[in-house]
Specification:
The protein has 14 helices and seven strands. The chain folds into two domains: 218 residues, Hypothetical protein, domain 2 (Endonuclease III, domain 1, Orthogonal Bundle); 122 residues, Alpha-Beta Complex (Nucleoside Triphosphate Pyrophosphohydrolase). The radius of gyration is 24 Å and the shape is elongated. The longest helix has 16 residues. By secondary structure, it is α+β, with helices and mostly antiparallel strands. Helix content is 40%, strand content 15%. Strands 1, 2, 3, 4, 5, 6 and 7 form a seven-stranded mixed β-sheet that branches.
Length: 362
């Protein structure tokens, strides 16, 4: 942990007071902040991982409306949960949340654990989610450390530890623990995150109106722009994929991905990566055969879409295909259906598929 200590231990109560007063008067009125229900707070924190607030708000309303309690969520089919999550991305969040709800209902008498250790044992609950829910819902003294908090800490203490390096996390956690207001941890944690979201932003930061700028070493030294430090990210690879909309007697073939792994449990049109120097049309026919066991032929090219995931990008060529012969024998997917185009909204698809689905014609 390398930093320049500007904020002394004796100053911490004043830091907490100034930050708390600012938050009470300037925080955004977000829907999950209107509730003390740990279930609603938990939903918001799960959705907000890697996702912007403005994107989460409508999903939050729809999700709570559809699954108003942890019991309602546990009783619902995973496919329905994934459909409600469709387009939000990082679908493991939804699958784990659904698993956790079932554990709570079946093993914990329907009560969300109000202690850190028990709560963290649930699927999908790591240090951040555990600290956020336990502090905000139950006011237990655990400091949260997300991207916004790391940026605030990096500037206050001029930390040279890279924010995007996993080995640095313990140093940010140590500073967050030092600053935490243990008498009002829920408000303090939200205030730290809100400060990073509204004032101590990555660019166009607003130091002159920051409520705690007098404690900030980066601001004092005129080096706010130098923090936080980051390790240069590796170049993201792009994969070329071919997918086929296989038609048979007016119906379309869709397959379901395995429940674990990337996009687990979602439906898609069969396809896969091109081999080196392989033509996209040949790859499409080959992948359909390998995944489903049926023979299809290309009719026409529908479109090409581009989509970015966290660690890679894809270029996807989509083709209309006609069924020729064979019976379905799945190799990879766990289920399949022949559907009418009118039924397509009943199934949850990856965002990449959602980009071309509106273009499909019978």
């Amino acid at each position: 942990m390398v930093g320049c200590m500007n904020l002394q231990k004796k100053d911490i109560p004043r830091f907490q007071e100034k930050l708390g007063n600012w938050y009470q008067g300037c925080h955004r009125n977000l829907p999950w902040r209107e509730s003390h229900d740990p279930y609603c707070i938990w939903i918001s924190e799960v959705m907000l991982q890697q996702t912007q607030v403005k994107t989460v708000i409508p999903y939050f309303f729809n999700f709570v409306d559809q699954f108003p309690t942890v019991n309602a969520l546990a009783k619902s089919d995973l496919q329905k949960v994934l459909k409600m999550w469709e387009g939000l991305g990082y679908y493991a969040r939804a699958r784990n949340f659904h698993k956790a709800a079932n554990i709570i209902v079946n093993d914990l008498d329907g009560k969300i654990p109000d202690d850190f250790g028990s709560f963290k044992k649930l699927p999908g609950v790591g240090d951040y989610i555990a600290a956020a829910v336990q502090s905000i819902a139950f006011d237990h003294p655990f400091a949260v450390v997300d991207g916004n908090v790391k940026r605030v800490l990096a500037r206050i203490f001029c930390m040279s530890d890279p924010v995007n390096k996993s080995s640095s996390h313990k140093y940010f956690k140590a500073y967050a623990d030092k600053l935490l207001d243990k008498n009002d941890s829920g408000i303090f944690n939200q205030a730290m995150m809100e400060l990073g979201a509204l004032i101590c932003t990555p660019k166009n930061f607003k130091c002159k109106i920051c409520p705690v700028s007098i404690f900030c070493k980066a601001y004092e030294s005129g080096k706010t722009n130098n923090f936080p430090k980051r390790v240069k990210a590796k170049k993201v690879p792009t994969y070329h994929i071919a997918a086929g909309i296989v038609r048979k007697n007016g119906r379309l073939l869709i397959t379901r991905r395995k429940l674990d792994g990337l996009l687990g449990g979602l439906w898609e049109f069969p396809g896969g990566k091109l081999k080196k120097d392989e033509d996209a049309t040949l790859a499409c026919v080959r992948e359909i055969k390998e995944e489903t066991g049926i023979q299809a032929e290309i009719e026409s090219h529908l479109t090409t879409i581009h989509h970015a995931y966290t660690h890679f990008k894809i270029k996807m060529d989509i083709f209309y295909c006609n069924y020729i012969s064979g019976a379905i024998q799945l190799n990879g997917p766990i289920d399949y259906k022949w559907i009418n185009l009118k039924q397509i909204d009943n199934f949850a698809f990856p965002k990449a598929n959602l980009k071309f689905i509106p273009l499909i014609e019978n």
